[in-house]
Design a protein that fits this description.
Blueprint: E1 2-7, H1 14-25, E2 28-31, H2 32-42, H3 45-54, H4 62-75, E3 81-85, H5 91-103, E4 110-115, H6 118-132, H7 139-153, H8 155-162, E5 166-170, H9 175-192
Parallel strand pairs: 1-3, 1-4, 2-3, 4-5
Helix pairs in contact: 1-9, 2-3, 4-5, 6-7
Residues 10-16, 32-33, 36, 53-54, 57-60, 65, 86-87, 89, 93, 124-125, 128, 136, 145, 171, 174-175, 178 line the site of BIS(adenosine)-5'-tetraphosphate (B4P).
C-alpha cells in the first residue's frame, strides 16, 4: 500500500492535487471536506449539524470526523492505498489515523505539506466562491478558516516532522508543476523506500 497525506491551509491546492495524484497512482482519494459536503447535500440531520460548523469556518468535532474516516477505510478492503485530503486537522485525528492504519497492518508513507502565501489563498478561495457558491468561501469565513488552521492544524505538521514523513512543497507554482514535483517524490520513495533528502520546492 501507499498512503499519502496532503496537508496545508485552506486554498493551498489540497483537493486539486489529491485528485491528480489519486489518478496517477491509483489511490483512493478521501477528502473529509467532500464527505461532509455530500452529507449536507443529502439533507440528513448529520448534514445540518455539519453545515453549522462548516459555514462558520469551524472544525467539525473529532468524533464525527473519525467515525467517517473509520467507515470509509473499513468498507473497502482491496485498495492500493489512500490519499487523505484535509485530514488529519488536529493532533487527535493524527494519532487516531496512525491507529487505524496500524489495524490495517499499514502505515502512512509521505505527508506533503503545501505552503502558499496568505494573499494568494484569499484570492483563490474568493475566486472559487464566485464559481461554486460555497458558503464558506466568503472573505470573513476564509480568514476564520485560516486562523483555525494556524491554531489547531499547523501543530500537526510537527507530529509528522518527528516521524520523518514530512515533505514541504510550494503550492505557488502552476497546478501541473506542483503535481509533477509531488509525483517525483513518490516515484523516488517507491524506488528507494526512503523520502528524498533534497526535495523539490
Ligand atoms: P476542505 O474541503 O478541506 O476545504 P479547503 O481547505 O478549502 O480545501 P480544498 O481542498 O477545497 O481547496 P483547494 O486547496 O484544493 O474543508 C472545508 C471545511 O470542512 C473545513 O473548513 C471544516 O469545517 C470541515 N472539515 C474538513 N475536514 C475536516 C477535518 N478533518 N476536521 C475537522 N473539520 C474538517 O483549492 C482551492 C482553490 O485554489 C481552487 O479553486 C483551486 O482551483 C485553486 N488552486 C489549487 N491549486 C492551484 C494552483 N497551483 N494555482 C492556482 N490555483 C490553484
Amino acid at each position: 500500500m501507499l498512503n499519502l497525506i496532503i496537508f496545508g491551509p485552506p486554498g493551498c491546492g489540497k483537493g486539486t492535487q489529491s485528485a491528480r495524484l489519486s489518478c496517477r497512482f491509483e489511490l483512493v482519494h478521501l477528502s473529509t471536506g467532500d464527505i461532509f459536503r455530500e452529507k449536507v447535500r443529502q439533507g440528513s440531520d448529520l448534514g445540518s449539524l455539519l453545515s453549522g460548523y462548516m459555514n462558520k469556518g469551524e472544525l467539525v468535532p473529532d468524533g464525527i470526523v473519525l467515525r467517517e474516516i473509520y467507515m470509509a477505510t473499513t468498507t473497502d478492503k482491496e485498495v492500493s492505498g489512500y490519499i487523505f485530503d484535509g485530514f488529519p486537522r488536529t493532533i487527535m485525528q493524527a494519532v487516531a489515523l496512525d491507529r487505524i492504519m496500524g489495524e490495517r497492518n499499514s502505515s502512512l508513507d509521505i505527508v506533503f505539506s503545501m505552503k502558499v502565501e496568505k494573499d494568494e489563498l484569499l484570492a483563490r478561495l474568493l475566486g472559487r466562491g464566485e464559481d461554486s457558491g460555497r458558503a464558506d468561501d466568503s472573505s470573513e469565513i476564509i480568514l476564520k478558516r485560516i486562523n483555525v488552521y494556524e491554531q489547531y492544524t499547523l501543530p500537526v505538521k510537527d507530529y509528522y516532522v518527528k516521524q520523518g514523513k514530512l515533505v514541504q512543497i510550494s503550492g505557488m507554482a502552476p497546478v501541473k508543476v506542483v503535481s509533477d514535483r509531488m509525483a517525483a517524490v513518490v516515484d523516488f520513495y517507491r524506488k528507494n523506500g526512503v523520502i528524498p533528502e533534497v526535495t523539490p520546492l
